Amino acid sequence: MSQAVYRFKPINVGRWVIWSLFALLMLVAPLLFTSNLSVTMLAQMGIAIIACLSYNILLGQGGMLSFGHAVYTGLGAYVAMHALNAATAGTLAIPVSLLPLVGGVAGMGFAVLLGYVTTRKSGTPFAMITLGVAELVFAMSLMFSEFFGGEAGISGNRVVGQPFFGITYGPQIQVYYLIAVYTFVSVAAMYALTQTPLGRILNAVRDNPERVEFIGYNTQRVRYLAFIIAGFFAGISGGLATINFEIVTAEVVGAARSGGYLLFTFLGGATFFFGPIIGGILMVIAFVLLSELTKAWLLYLGLIFLFMVMYAPGGIASLIMMNLRVAKYGKLRQIWTSYLGLGLTALVMLAGAGAMIEMVYHLQLNSALGDQVRFMGMTLNARGLDSWFGAAFVMLTGLGLFELARRQYVHEWGEIQEEIEKEIKRREMTV
Amino acid sequence: MSDYALELRGVTKKFGKTEIIRGVDLQVRPGERVAVIGPNGAGKSTLFNLISGRFGPTSGEILLAGQRIDHRKPFEINRMGLSRSFQITNIFPKLSVFENLRCAVLWSLGYRYTFLKFLSGLKDANERAEQLMEMIRLDKKRDTLAMNLTYAEQRALEIGITIAGGAQVILLDEPTAGMSKSETQRFIHLIREVTEGRTLLTVEHDMGVVFGLADRIAVVVYGEVIAFDTPEAVRANPKVQEAYLGSVIAESQAGGH
């Protein structure tokens, strides 16, 4: 009979290795990147990873496109900030280490309250309601300045009470490790969720809600529970942000922040669990580094987003997984020259386009400083015909070559996929 | 406790002013196999949708083992012991065969919405899913995504999902639609096997299948049950022959026996 057919592996070696590596990486990262900036960025990455993963419980696991996830990270941050200030004032005895949990419970509470309305619907109505709720909360943030602190926001001081084993949370590195611990536990918990009955039924609701109703599940209840869990982890992320930045302003519940979570979760890849981790890391890199590098960073971000939606809707995670599959069948060698070609031609194209974008921004914003623009080690003249022609020439050449490389790549990719399909069939036959 | 596994009392359904179901009475005994036949547009699928709770009847009562189920939600009716399949394949395309079946057994085994247990540790759910996979002959496709199965395999999976929760009353809406003759033969055998001991209602067009499978046949014409009897009696019923079946039955008698 079919007893013991099910291959239950209590200890999965590969899984242990991956999680240990993940923990190790977070442990040693600040020892490898020691500058103030990098430790700050690492801390922010942890916060963003939790936020994006919690968002993906909705988007990737449950097929719920929310336009208002910042409501739950943001309100979590506000409540945590009030708790911090109460601790400073001595009216609330709570250690700083537990503030993220305060944020989490707050995020969960608001999800219980607002999600009850939101998750009645799915699909487009769901998306519209989240948008409405987000607008509502943002409007309230301008009305109730006692809670939201008005334009200036609310600030606090994370160094509260007696040091615990020398931990004051004064130095950034201590805050980093607090965030790292929360990140690891949250990521593990959210991964665990995908392996539970609720997590799997949530996938089923995403794929075919009608059928789920006919196997005994109330789809509204499934969505609601997932929404509450997502709200909890979003709140934890907000609480960590409170400790990290020591200030919370109304923009943390704003539409731009919600859009950011959506955008970077999508970029990282919503179809795989680890996609939003990549998304969170990219989010911080974009917000901190790219924004330093160029004023036109949002424009570049928009271009990348457009490009990904059109050519790689599964995000970076799916690109990785597709190429891992190719590598597994030993065919990566056939295609890596194509990748080189794609990369180089894309760079040429970007260089040309970038030069023009920078010149436009320079003319719009800094024209009082003269017409000279520094770009990739060159000096361009924003009003000079030759600079414009040169940039346009580089971009068009790059575009043409890129298109050629792309066609070549698509052709090779198709061939390789066919070969792999044949290989799979062959293996199936021999089994 | 009622004598009937399923009972319909004066059920009607109107969409706007159009009356699709016009006063249907039906009593199905436990363990009985009933085939619902009738011309296209007679209201067979609507009848199934009313029973399974996709929408409520305009008037009348529907009882499952003596309990009212009209105007209840599909998931409530399912929990009370009625499960259905769909005419258009209705599975979870992005989940594997195994996951499809495991999802379908979870509620009946009491796991509900739990997020404090790992799926891999649910021995009973996993074993039941494996068992079902063998029953519908898909054990070799365990980890294949449902969307990559052949049509016949998807139909089998549809049946598997339907019977997974152990419901006592099973509704199959055209289970063999779109299958070849030989596939249909094998499939009927499968349906017999997996619904053994349960009450079965099925909509079917293939008369060979109907007369081979059913204990009783309900003939639906224009939203009314004009006959509900054994295959022999239905065949002999002049009202049925006049209204609908004459030619078809003659054919099946000539060819089938």
Features:
heterodimer, A: 431 residues, mainly alpha, 2 domains, two-stranded antiparallel sheet, two-stranded antiparallel ribbon, 16 helices, 4 strands, globular, B: 257 residues, alpha/beta, Rossmann fold, six-stranded mixed beta sheet, four-stranded antiparallel beta sheet, 9 helices
What's the main sheet of chain B like? 6 strands, mixed
Termini separation of chain A comes to 21 Å
Instruction: Kindly state the number of beta strands of chain A.
Output: 4
Shape type of chain B: globular
Query: What is the CATH homology-level superfamily of the largest domain in chain B?
Result: P-loop containing nucleotide triphosphate hydrolases
| CATH T-level fold name of the largest domain in chain B | Rossmann fold
In DSSP terms (H or I, runs of 4 or more residues), the helix count of chain A works out at 16
Strand content of chain B is 15-25%
User: What radius of gyration of chain A results from the CA coordinates?
Assistant: 24 Å
Mean pLDDT of chain B: 91
Percent helix range of chain A: over 70%
Structure class of chain B: alpha/beta
Give the integer mean of the pLDDT values of chain A: 92
Main sheet overview of chain A: 2 strands, antiparallel
What is the helix fraction of residues of chain B, given as a range? 25-40%
Helix/strand order of chain A: HHHHHHEHHHHEHHHHHEEH
Do you know the CATH architecture of the largest domain in chain B?
3-Layer(aba) Sandwich
Structural category of chain A is: mainly alpha
Kindly report the spatial arrangement of strands forming the biggest sheet of chain B. Answer: 6-7-8-3-9-10
CATH level 1 name of the largest domain in chain B: Alpha Beta
The Rg value of chain B, from CA coordinates, equals 19 Å
Q: Your description of this structure?
A:
Chain A has 16 helices and four strands. Chain A has helices at residues 13-32, 36-61, 70-89, 99-118, 123-143, 145-148, 172-194, 197-207, 209-213, 219-245, 255-268, 275-293, 297-311, 315-328, 332-365, 385-430, and strands at residues 154-155, 247-248, 372-375, 378-381. In chain A, the strands form two sheets. In chain A, strands 1-2 form a two-stranded antiparallel ribbon. A two-stranded antiparallel sheet of chain A has the order 3-4. In chain A, helix 2 (36-61) crosses helix 12 (275-293), helix 8 crosses helix 10 (219-245) and helix 15 runs antiparallel to helix 16 (385-430). The longest helix of chain A has 46 residues, at 385-430. Chain A is globular. The two termini of chain A are 21 Å apart. In chain A, 40% of the residues are buried. Chain B folds into two domains: 1-81 and 168-257, P-loop containing nucleotide triphosphate hydrolases (Rossmann fold), CATH 3.40.50; 88-166, no CATH class. In chain B, helix 3 (97-106) runs parallel beside helix 5. The mean pLDDT of chain B is 91. The A-B interface holds A 2-3, 5-6, 8-9, 192-193, 195-201, 203-204, 206-208, 210-219, 221-222, 225, 229 and B 52, 73-75, 78-79, 83-84, 86, 90-95, 99, 102-104, 106-108, 111-123, 126-127, 129-131, 134, 161, 164-165.
